[in-house]
Amino acid sequence: MPEGDTVWLTAHRMHRALAGHTLTHADLRVPRFATADLAGRTLLDVTARGKHLLARIEGGLTLHSHLRMEGSWRVFAAGRRWTGGPDHQIRAVLGNDGHTAVGYRLPVLELIRTAEEPDRVGHLGPDLLGPDWDAAEAVRRVCADPARPLGEALLDQRNLAGIGNVYKCELAFLARATPWLPVGELPAGVPERLIATAHRLLEANKLRFERRTAPENRPDRKLYVYGRKDRPCFRCGTPVSRWQETDQERLSYWCPGCQQGPGPTG
């Protein structure tokens, strides 16, 4: 599942391969933009904003995409076979003489005016990996609704941009709180430490696709609870629990032994 660090790394790799070069071919395989002709324009910049990816193109255009659950952008050197999935899953191709970026299974893909970017990302809170990161503002937004469950508050991109389901579960574990504990019931100082930890973890993981939240000196331990259903908690030994939201793919993992607060049913 792409989260803020994955999107940042994707943008970083695309920027390194494409920025400053003329597009020799461009193909947007969505009906609304299929006739757009971008070849011959210079790709100026590729930037991540939370979980959104913005590829800015000469002429005041931005290719806006969002990966959501299954989407990905892959970068291939010229002449390399594309290996991100079958051809029918390709939604976009941007290439120059040296590299090609291929977007697979992109649920959101649109060509907009660069001036319209605020309409797409202006609602986002402080970006954990952005130059505008403001920890105090992120804490204020997360704590603005004391009755809201911690997991919901962390996932709300209007509070802070970049946290997905994996980090939600891992951060709740580190706070010793279940994802359903109301934010207002966290002990004093915990929200501030939690937001600082979120920033530290995303920064540490942004240059690698293999995400890690546990200490580096334990190669056998990458994540504390996410994906570890029925396996013993590293902290107390209690089997990790999992719960899936009704009609959604989103899962919650937590340790009933050392995370305090209500479960998914209240």
From TrEMBL:
<dbReference type="InterPro" id="IPR000214">
    <property type="entry name" value="Znf_DNA_glyclase/AP_lyase"/>
</dbReference>
<keyword id="KW-0456">Lyase</keyword>
<keyword id="KW-0227">DNA damage</keyword>
<protein>
    <recommendedName>
        <fullName>DNA-(apurinic or apyrimidinic site) lyase</fullName>
        <ecNumber>4.2.99.18</ecNumber>
    </recommendedName>
</protein>
<dbReference type="InterPro" id="IPR015887">
    <property type="entry name" value="DNA_glyclase_Znf_dom_DNA_BS"/>
</dbReference>
<dbReference type="InterPro" id="IPR044090">
    <property type="entry name" value="Nei2_N"/>
</dbReference>
<dbReference type="Pfam" id="PF01149">
    <property type="entry name" value="Fapy_DNA_glyco"/>
</dbReference>
<comment type="similarity">
    <text>Belongs to the FPG family.</text>
</comment>
<keyword id="KW-0511">Multifunctional enzyme</keyword>
<feature type="domain" description="Formamidopyrimidine-DNA glycosylase catalytic">
    <location>
        <begin position="2"/>
        <end position="79"/>
    </location>
</feature>
<keyword id="KW-0238">DNA-binding</keyword>
<dbReference type="InterPro" id="IPR012319">
    <property type="entry name" value="FPG_cat"/>
</dbReference>
<keyword id="KW-0326">Glycosidase</keyword>
<keyword id="KW-0378">Hydrolase</keyword>
<keyword id="KW-0863">Zinc-finger</keyword>
<keyword id="KW-0234">DNA repair</keyword>
<dbReference type="InterPro" id="IPR015886">
    <property type="entry name" value="H2TH_FPG"/>
</dbReference>
<dbReference type="InterPro" id="IPR035937">
    <property type="entry name" value="FPG_N"/>
</dbReference>
<feature type="domain" description="FPG-type">
    <location>
        <begin position="224"/>
        <end position="260"/>
    </location>
</feature>
<keyword id="KW-0862">Zinc</keyword>
<keyword id="KW-0479">Metal-binding</keyword>
<dbReference type="InterPro" id="IPR010979">
    <property type="entry name" value="Ribosomal_uS13-like_H2TH"/>
</dbReference>
